[in-house]
Amino acid sequence: MSTTRRPIAAGNWKMNLLSADAEAFCTALQPRLGGGSEVILFPSFPLLPAVAAGLAGAAAAWGGQDLHPEDAGAHTGDVSGSQLADAGCTWALCGHSERRQGHGEDDARVAAKIGAALRHRLRPMVCIGETREQRRAGKTLAVLERQLGAALDAVVAGAGDDLDPATGLALAYEPVWAIGSGETATPETAQEVHASLRRSVARRLGEAAADRLRILYGGSVKPGNAAELLAEPDLDGFLIGGASLDPASFSDIIAVCDRGADSR
Ligand code: PGA
User: Fold this and answer.
1) Pocket test for ligand 1, best of 12, 42, 128 (most atoms within 8 A of CB)
2) Can you tell me the distance from the alpha carbon of 184 to that of 221, in angstroms, rounded to the nearest whole number?
3) Quick one: pLDDT at residue 245?
4) Which of 96, 105, 120, 232 is catalytic?
5) Which of 17, 69, 169, 199 could be disulfide-bonded to 112 (CB atoms 3.0-4.6 Å)?
């Protein structure tokens, strides 16, 4: 199958690294940029200026790991979409499972955050995924359908006719049991879910939109398993946690995505 979907290699640093690490990381990353894939970093908020400086002029983007649904106000500890945009962000993670689980974010809250991102011209990278218990109970697709439906409703409400599914957002399938566990979904398992998600997007937004939307996989992606995952036709790149903290392993995954871009 051939596709024009450009692979994404996105690094989610979570609550790791300091400014000096971020600077050194960007310096090491620079020579590995400029291939066929799209590279995005999601540092924690205090590191955004270091990343913005380190990637100035480079073929890479950065985004916030979270944002508040409102644009300003009395929300101690939160960050707004306008503040992310002001820090040069062009993306925002919405609905990462560590936010859903650790901060009680339900589908409605994630939808409100997607709306906030779109208001500030931040491209939402919407994360969805089932827990191990949900998978064991045979509820994987039902859970994903519910999370996806709420997210797509928010995207349509927020972007309307401006929606470009190729560039305006991305979806990240991240099975919760695979995150940080070393237990990656097999390529077959990931492909089955990605294909089902794309069919669901097609039912809601039409075939053309579904065909252009990038659906990333996340959960224990490493240089050693990225190529076999990316060989799956409905898998369009990665959201990478642990392996994105080291410029060498992140660059190796970028190289896999670059090769994938050339062969698609
Ligand atoms: P991991 O994290 O690559 O460390 O499993 C992925 C994520 O949570 O985005």
Assistant:
1) 12
2) 7
3) 98
4) 96
5) 69
Task: Say if ligand 1 is within 6 A of residue 215 CB.
Answer: no
pTM assigned to the model? 0.97
Please tell me if the CB atom of residue 54 comes closer than 6 angstroms to any atom of ligand 1.
no
The pair of structure tokens assigned to 8 is 């994404």
Pairwise CA distance, residues 181 & 167, whole Å: 30
How much is the pLDDT for 228? 98
- Structure confidence by residue, pLDDT tens digits, 39-84: 999 999 999 999 999 999 999 999 999 999 999 999 999 999 999 9
Catalytic residue among 98, 105, 130, 174: 174
Across residues 240-255, what is the average pLDDT? 98
Residue 96 annotated as catalytic: yes
- Is 174 one of the annotated active-site residues of the chain? yes
Burial of 203 (0-12, 13-18, 19+ CB in 10 A): exposed
Tens-place pLDDT, residues 146-188 = 999 999 999 999 988 888 888 899 999 999 999 999 999 999 9
Both structure tokens of 234: 């409905």
Return the pLDDT at 2: 61
Q: Indicate if the pLDDT at residue 1 is higher than 50.
A: no
Protein residue with least CA distance to atom 2, ligand 1 = 241
CA 87 to chain centroid, in Å, comes to: 19
